[in-house]
Amino acid sequence: MANHSAVMKFFLMEVSATRKLQIIHGFLFLLIYLVTLMGNLLIFVLITLDQYLHTPMYFFLKNLSLFDACLISITVPKCIMNTLCHENTMSFSGCILQVLLVIHFAGSELFILTAMSYDRYVAICRPLHYNIIMNRRVCMGMTVTAWLLGSIFGVLYSSGTFSLSLCGSRNLPQFFCDVPSLLKVSCSKTHITIDISEAIGVMYALFCLVPIGFSYICIFNTVLRIPSSQRWSKTFSTCTPHLIVVTTFIVTGTMAYLKPVPDSPYLVDFLVSVFYSVLPPSLNPIIYSLRNKEIKESLRKFLWKVSHYRFYGEKQ
Known about the structure:
two-stranded antiparallel ribbon; 2 strands; mainly alpha; 76% helix; disordered N terminus; 316 residues; 2% strand
């Protein structure tokens, strides 16, 4: 820990060596960030205000939108600011905070996705007992568990990573601070603490993935027995968006953490980082707003209320 005070700043990967391309990338990231943030916050607000959407499925979706909005806000704004201001530095405390919060919200999101798959399993495979099983206390308990587990893993990974000796290069091959990049610049020969943390993280991922897989096996098995094609369509319309979000989140996260960290980052490494940190939060509002009739109807009513209020407000 003695050498940590000396390492006050890290140097992050630059998006491009050309100033014009940096500005273009900066504004492109800004556009993606604003659209993603507004999309997720809009879903959060619609579900909160619309009484019709106060069901377990939309309760979990509201929390998923909140996690996505927070997750993308941890990494992308700093990248935008560095790119537009022609800087690539990150303070030591800022780096600790980024690792802590990224792991926290990623871990919490994985559990919420697991809860959403269980909700769909109960709704389709045990519909008569749905209201009893998925009651308010169960939904709140799952959400609190998601926040708690995310906090535990955030503290575990950040403390394990920054307990290592960081006496090597301060150039991180990443546009934000993450565990693999920090391990790359560490000069500690043994990573016992972080190895234990990663082992626990793998077990946690399996703990979430097994129920998700089991839920969808049961769902598809039940759906195939339904004779009505209309019921098939309704079932898949609620399950497909969740399955896409789960697959994207897991695949991009696995690629980012299992891919060897290069000494000098290439374009493909930058794209993998973008897919991992930007793509999953961006997909959530797009998938659920375009495919979900209830969300679109709620948005229509919300916009009508806003326009109605403005019209009569101006007349008064």
